[in-house]
Amino acid sequence: MGVGVSRPRWLATLLAVVATGLVVAAPAAAAPTDENIPTSDAIAGVEEYLRKQQDEHRIPGLAYAIVGRDRVIGQAAWGIDGQGAAVTGQTPFLIGSVSKPFTALAVMRLVEAGRVNLDDPVRRHLPWFRLADDDAAGRITVRQLLTHTSGLPRWASRTDRFDNTAGGLARSVRDLATVEPVESPGAAHRYSDANYMVLGALVETVTGQPFGGFLRREVFDPLDMRHAAGSEAEAERVGLSAGHRYWFGHPRRFDPGYDTSGVPYGYVAASLDDLTHFVTAQLDGGRYAGTQVLSADGITQMHTGQVDTSNSGRYGLGWRDTELEGTDTRVVWHAGATPGYFAHLVLIPGSGLGVIVLANSYSLALDSSLATMGFNIARMAHGETWLSSGADPLLSAALYTLLAVVGLLTITVAWSLVRAVRPRRRAQTERVRITAVAAWVFGCVALICVVVAALPAMLGGDLGQALLWTPDIGWTIITIATLASAVAIVRIGVAVRAILAIRR
Fold first, then answer.
1. Domain total for the chain?
2. CA distance 439 to 29
3. Please, is 431 exposed, middle or buried when counting C-beta atoms within 10 Å of its C-beta (0-12, 13-18, 19+)?
4. The overall pTM is greater than 0.90
5. Tens digit of pLDDT for each residue in 101-130?
């Protein structure tokens, strides 16, 4: 889910002319001046704020950095990883949808090498690409995949497959053959992991290399990202440990394994030190330590919003382009999550600064609070007051409501069992009893349908996704379905017993 998981939170900014397909160049990030560089007091304030957030949200391991074009201005790491070891700048984290800027950079490397054109139809490079609408599939371009304007729905395919076998990424793209687009290609922005899934397969076909191998050669190694991973083997080599999911507000260790098939949209792993190198290149026109990974124009093009997202600014080539809430400060950013990890990169082009936040825990209910940390660091770096943010009240209310339903169903099951063992001596016709039990069964089936199908759909997935991302809600749903089934079965048994007694 590559959560990007992210919910609508940001203001729009107009920085591109899409109708003509020409990008309006935005100025490159300025070098941080003495005026822009946060003071030692500001850095201390940032770290005090983050420690409070770590305590409040029970985050086991947290790391951050503020980066300029030529140096790391401030960074720290606190807590423990999934193995109980101290988190450091070299500890690898899964970065969720922050993988998308890496995939976009890999594609842009091919563009600048002349091997791919942004406005090429995808089928020029991936001739076997299919959707349920064959005409639409033939018109989708590389640029539309990068900007999420291909028309693919948000949940176009099952993500988080944890498929580490050869050809896993290509198989996930082939599974799109039955997916019906929800928009014509280029008509509107629809954020979907499937777009970057297809881009990953395109890179593999064009280069003849596994996607993770291409990332290693073309991105990780040039940027000296020594603890980054784009495959299961690399994840094991760098020591990627388990993350943490929340059970009723408390983090619990969770290790579903690595997902090589999901690397293009959400399963890149990297350490804080690695990401400071990546951010430096983003701020310094594609250059890190004398190595040019992309031209300055290419970086500008990636950062410049090209399509409206309707509720969170504009989307460029793998990056969001918005303004800090309540300010006119432009930020280029991306957040992301996997089951157990959260990451956020925020670039501030006007001051030449970048912010990195990494956490080894994640809850959908805390998504807004976790994302707010990165934006608040950006605000504090500019001498502004940070904004407060709490857990999602709707998700919290939903969980407590489900727990209340569990309680009521438990009482109902107990009461029904008492009725089965000690039936009331009351004269009722067979028809009345059948009508009553039918009402019970209908109510129980309706409740099961609502909690098993409708509720997970409202959260943006199915029961399997609910169990993966929100295990407390997922298992509460299963408990409700089990208890409702028990109520229906016991009520049927009571009714049958009573009807047989009447007939005798």
1. 2
2. 66
3. exposed
4. no
5. 999 999 999 999 999 999 999 999 999 999
